[in-house]
Design a protein that fits this description.
The protein is built from 4 helices and 6 strands; from the N terminus they run ββααααββββ. With about 140 residues, it is of the alpha+beta class. The chain has a single domain, classed as Roll (Thiol Ester Dehydrase, Chain A), CATH 3.10.129. Strands 1, 2, 3, 4, 5 and 6 form a 6-stranded antiparallel beta sheet that branches. A hairpin with a 4-residue loop joins β4 (about 95-110) and β5. The longest helix is centred in the N-terminal third of the chain and has 11 residues, at about 25-35.
Length: about 140
């Protein structure tokens, strides 16, 4: 998605990522890294008694994995600018395969040959259900030519 210079984007253009399957190791590693050992993510017996009936991936891990699925071209992308309107709409379970569907919703020119490309991002699983939504913003360079 972010492999073009600022002036090459158009409002409404779309992009779909490759898939990535969530594993038990993802939950354990994210818990270790973040310190978030909430039992809904880490305790099979606890999670079985919840409305989800099983462990679910941390919402923040889903967002982190999503950022790894975004195509980012060095030299074109200056930096991650931020996220707005984040919502988790369905659970992500161990074994779910996630992909992104993104659509350009705003282009804002900034100083110094850069601008912000905003995209509406849906994180979807193999069933077609959306598990999270957000507006993702990248600081993107203009071409030098």
């Amino acid at each position: 998605m972010f492999a073009k210079y600022l002036e090459q984007y158009e409002i409404g253009e779309t992009w779909t990522s490759k898939g990535r399957t969530i594993t038990e190791a993802d939950l354990v590693n994210f818990s270790s890294f973040s310190g978030d050992w909430f039992p809904l993510h880490t305790d099979k017996e606890y999670a079985a008694k919840t409305s989800f009936k099983q462990r679910i991936a941390h919402g923040m891990s889903v967002l982190s994995i999503a950022t790894g699925l975004i195509l980012l071209e060095p030299g074109i992308v200056e930096a991650f600018y931020g996220m707005d309107h984040v919502r988790f709409t369905n659970p992500t379970f161990i074994g779910d395969t996630l992909h992104l569907e993104m659509s350009v919703c705003n282009i804002q020119e900034k100083d110094n040959g850069k601008g912000i490309v905003s995209t509406e991002m849906e994180i979807k699983k193999q069933t077609g259900e959306t598990v999270a939504v957000a507006v993702v913003k990248m600081l993107v360079n203009k071409s030098k030519g």
